[in-house]
Design brief:
Radius of gyration: 17 Å
Helix content: 25-40%
Oligomer: single chain
CATH class: Alpha Beta
Number of domains: 1
CATH topology: Rossmann fold
Largest sheet: 7 strands, mixed
Strand order of the largest sheet: 7-6-5-8-9-11-10
Strand content: 25-35%
Shape: globular
CATH architecture: 3-Layer(aba) Sandwich
Order of helices and strands: HEEEEHEHEHEHEHEHEE
Number of strands: 11
Length: 222
């Protein structure tokens, strides 16, 4: 049975004229987070940063189109937002495998459960600190997306080579990693970019609208 949409038909049509505020919370992790209905899609944002925008989440729409993966592969999503990446996998790329989302913020998880598109299967959601979770993780995944931000910044813990090594260990042979950062923060986050280049040699950069997403594949001779 399909879940009901969490907004009215009137709000839907209004959203094509101007953003319609659906929800707002003060999160201890993310600060003020807001859900607006924009052009018929739910958008999660804080400040100037957009965390989710259903199938219009253009940075990962483009990156997933460049990456190579099977439609039944096992996927790990680090940083959930409202679930744009699982939704894109299902709707645009016809994915039918298991998707596991790791999200630390219970407020974001609550909003995701409320505003995730009702036409799509709900992914497996784990509330956890991704740094600690990866330290303890024994599984490997065919596709990992790293989309963790506090505002416009990648959390400092995720710059560290220890985290990046745990992340690399979680990529299955032949699998892929997509790691998102804001291009405009390359200077401020230069240690992150350097550590990524050292941990994932041969990775390519996928430029998107405002983001640069590192694309790395686990080859047998890595």
């Amino acid at each position: 049975m399909e879940r009901k949409k969490p907004y009215s038909a009137w709000q839907y049509w209004q959203s094509f004229l101007y953003p319609v505020r659906l929800d707002q919370k003060n999160s201890s992790y993310s600060g003020e987070i807001r859900v607006d209905l924009v052009g018929g899609r739910c958008q999660l944002h804080t400040g100037n940063a957009i965390y989710s925008y259903e199938d219009r989440y253009t940075s990962f729409m483009h990156a997933l189109g460049v990456a190579t993966f099977e439609d039944d592969c096992r996927v790990l999503v680090l940083g959930m937002g409202l679930g744009s990446i699982p939704y894109l996998l299902f709707r645009t790329f016809h994915h039918r495998g298991l998707v596991t989302c790791i999200e630390i913020d219970p407020d974001i998880i609550g909003l995701a459960k409320k505003y995730y598109p009702p036409s799509a299967p709900v992914p497996d959601i784990i509330q956890a600190d991704a740094v600690t979770w990866l330290q303890q993780n024994k599984l490997t995944f065919d596709l990992i997306t790293m989309d963790m931000f506090i505002g416009e910044e990648v959390p400092y813990e995720c710059w560290q080579t220890s985290f990046l090594s745990d992340l690399k260990r979680a990529v299955a042979p032949g699998g892929a990693l997509l790691f998102s950062r804001l291009k405009e923060r390359e200077v401020e986050e230069q240690d992150l970019w350097k550590n990524l280049a050292e941990t994932f040699p041969g990775a390519a950069e996928i430029p998107t609208s405002g983001n640069s997403i590192m694309y790395w594949r686990y080859e047998d001779d890595h």
